[in-house]
Design goal:
The protein is mainly α. Helix content is 62%, strand content 3%. The chain is globular. The relative contact order is 0.21.
Length: 447
């Protein structure tokens, strides 16, 4: 297959295909499909674009919980490579730090007087829960997915995932009362540049709109005095991540794991993130024109996510999860190559060992990322509407109207459902649960 990133004779970034080399595996909507490999220099730029997209959120989680930032960055890269291997290189997912466990982890660490043993043990067990669920799925099959998650449930679920992140984008962009007008200007500029490049640019420039927008937004931020270079000056050039292993090296008998109430309070959150896992893979599947829940299969995607989380926790990092920011990048650029996401993973691992580079990236102002996120999260939400349109969901039927309305209001309205003293359902997970239950109990209307 011949791949042309920049060719004046190839309009609108169309791929030049040899008819004899064309296969059903190729998705015509993608500029680069799952198994297409970019040229080396272009590969580097495309992978860096994903690194920029995930960086802010990935390092924010450990910053809020007190876990080492360098380990979180290293674990996100390693976890992505583990996931890619387990899913046979069929899913262009990037795994970053999960926000869902922040509260539970903070409570566990505080209860232990700053010791992360309870949190570390709990997150390792969460990874094992994913593995167990993946085994169950493997034996009972996957036909139940279509029954539990028809388009009328999937569409609103995807919309909730994207719109549920909207407040974070708006806050980072400083579009709030008392917000910095300089930051607002930078956010608007970043958004407009990314939008214009993705719609008007030609050649290779068209598929790196976020990278270009971030660079320009960063330069303008520097000129407006929004960037603090102190972290770069203070950072060392080379340093290994601050791994916190559950035992002392060379002495496997001295385990520092902890199995107490603080540990087990973390485990129920896995039910929430498993629901999000299914939703995120459904979103990505719609963007890529694939059904990742069937090929490579939910059992493999869960297994990859679970092992990645267990390994991250073992090293002293946060739980891993699929990142909506990177899904948004794929949706906007039409580059779904697994080589690109794997390349981003390698870059993340290298950055975790190069102090000044990772410190430099961390100086990107929130307003730059906020302007970009408005577009990224909007793309995810719009794909939820696309599911409903493509499947011709009839909102003239009261049943469909009730399901979608309930899911949107509950998912976006901040609804919380406490279950005992150990778990709280909210957001995407609660919305999905409501949609699934309503779909099962409401009678289907006659055509």
């Amino acid at each position: 297959m011949k791949k042309h990133f920049y060719d004046e004779e190839v309009k609108d970034m169309s791929l030049v295909l040899d008819e004899n080399e064309y296969s059903e595996d190729h998705n015509a909507e993608m500029i680069l499909d799952i198994h297409d490999k970019p040229e080396p220099l272009q590969w580097l730029f495309l992978s860096f674009q994903h690194v920029f997209a995930m960086f802010g959120a990935t390092i924010l989680v450990p910053a809020l919980t007190g876990l080492p930032v360098s380990v979180a960055l290293f674990a996100s890269g390693l976890g992505t490579l583990i996931y890619t291997w387990i899913t046979k290189g069929k899913v262009p997912v990037y795994l970053g730090s999960s926000f869902a466990y922040i509260s539970a982890v903070v409570i566990a660490i505080e209860a232990m007087g700053g010791n992360i043993a309870a949190a570390q043990t709990g997150l390792m067990l969460v990874g094992l829960i994913y593995v167990v669920v993946s085994i169950i799925v493997r034996f009972i099959g996957k036909d139940w997915i279509d029954k539990l998650l028809p388009p009328i449930v999937i569409g609103p679920m995807i919309a909730v995932i994207g719109l549920g992140l909207a407040a974070n984008a708006v806050k980072n962009a400083q579009f709030i009362e008392g917000g910095d007008h300089r930051a607002m200007f930078v956010a608007i500029l970043t958004f407009i540049i990314a939008a214009l490049i993705s719609t008007k640019a030609k050649g290779f420039l068209k598929i790196i709109p976020f990278l270009v927008a971030i660079i320009i937004g960063y330069i303008v931020s520097v000129c407006l005095g929004l960037v603090d270079f102190a972290p770069v000056v203070e950072a060392s050039w080379f340093s290994l991540p601050e791994f916190i292993l559950p035992f002392k090296l060379g002495n496997f008998a001295s385990y520092d794991l902890y199995f107490g109430p603080e540990t087990f309070a973390i485990l129920p959150v896995a039910l929430v993130t498993i629901s999000e896992h299914i939703g995120d893979h459904t979103v990505l599947g719609k963007i890529c024109g694939r059904n990742f829940l069937k090929d490579p299969g939910l059992e493999r995607t869960l297994l990859g996510d679970g092992i990645a989380t267990a390994v991250s926790a073992f090293l002293g990092g946060p739980a891993n999860t699929t990142y909506g920011e990177n899904t948004g990048v794929i949706g906007m650029t039409k580059i779904s190559s697994v080589y690109v996401t794997a390349g981003a993973a390698v870059i993340a691992i290298l950055l975790s060992c190069i102090g000044k580079v990772s410190a430099f990236i961390s100086t990107i102002p929130g307003c730059v990322l906020g302007g970009m996120s408005i577009l990224l999260y909007g793309v995810i939400a719009s794909n939820g509407l696309r599911v409903l349109v493509d499947n011709k969901v009839d909102f003239g039927k009261q049943r469909n109207l009730v399901i979608a309305s309930a899911m949107l209001v509950i998912g976006l309205g901040g609804a919380i459902l406490p279950i005992g003293n150990f778990m709280t359902l909210s957001g995407t997970a609660l919305s999905a649960l409501v949609g699934i239950i309503l779909n099962l109990i409401l009678p289907k209307e006659a055509n």
